[in-house]
Design a protein that fits this description.
- Helices cover about 10% and strands about 40% of the residues.
- The chain is built from 4 helices and 10 strands, in the order βββββββαααββαβ.
- The strands form 3 sheets. Strands 1-7-4-5 form a 4-stranded antiparallel sheet, with no helix packed on it.
- β4 and β5 form a beta hairpin.
- It starts with 12 loop residues before the first strand and ends with a strand.
């Protein structure tokens, strides 16, 4: 949300961009890079170095950006689209029906139809845009040689073995 009069009730797509430098040590076969946008209101489309990474629509989603990232300078673009509810919340009254639609829908509201239009002019506004925090996590691949029943010595697990298991850890 915004306190600026021109953007307070904006509905549409906002563009967020940043260039950042990634050390060469982060680009390796045993590493994965995950992007977390934090809080996004409502849908975020992510592009890294002109590669479409994915779309995020709820908190907690992380994106694997390993293949799009490179050592040195990277350019991240996040397009965030909110819903029409921000625009509707700024209405003082329902908007008029456009002239070309009057033959199909009628010329406006009646006492009966206005009751079904839903709330207008309400507060507080829903969160919109990229609130973050935006972060990139580096995961390192490690190799574990163990048997599950060595870790969890419970009856019935003796046949369940996991030799040469691959695990991703945050360094």
């Amino acid at each position: 949300t915004s306190d600026l009069p021109g953007t307070r009730h904006f509905s549409g797509t906002g563009r967020y961009e940043i260039s950042f430098e990634l050390p060469e040590a982060y680009i390796a076969k045993d590493k994965r890079l995950l992007l977390d946008l934090g809080q996004v209101g409502n849908v975020g489309e992510v592009e890294l170095n002109d590669v479409n990474a994915a779309t995020v629509w709820m908190r907690g989603q992380t994106l694997d950006i390993t293949d799009a990232a490179k050592s040195g300078w990277n350019h991240l673009v996040v397009l965030v689209t909110n819903t029409l509810i921000n625009r509707v919340s700024g209405f003082k009254e329902p908007p008029p029906v456009p002239e070309e639609l009057v033959p199909h829908y009628g010329s406006g509201t009646t006492r009966f139809s206005s009751a079904f239009r839903g709330p207008i002019g309400f507060k507080p506004l829903p969160a919109s845009g990229l609130m973050g925090p935006v972060k990139i996590s580096a995961l390192k691949k490690i190799k574990n040689d163990f048997k599950l029943n060595d870790v969890y010595p419970e009856p019935g697990l003796e046949d369940f073995k996991t030799d040469s298991r691959q695990t991703w850890l945050t360094p």
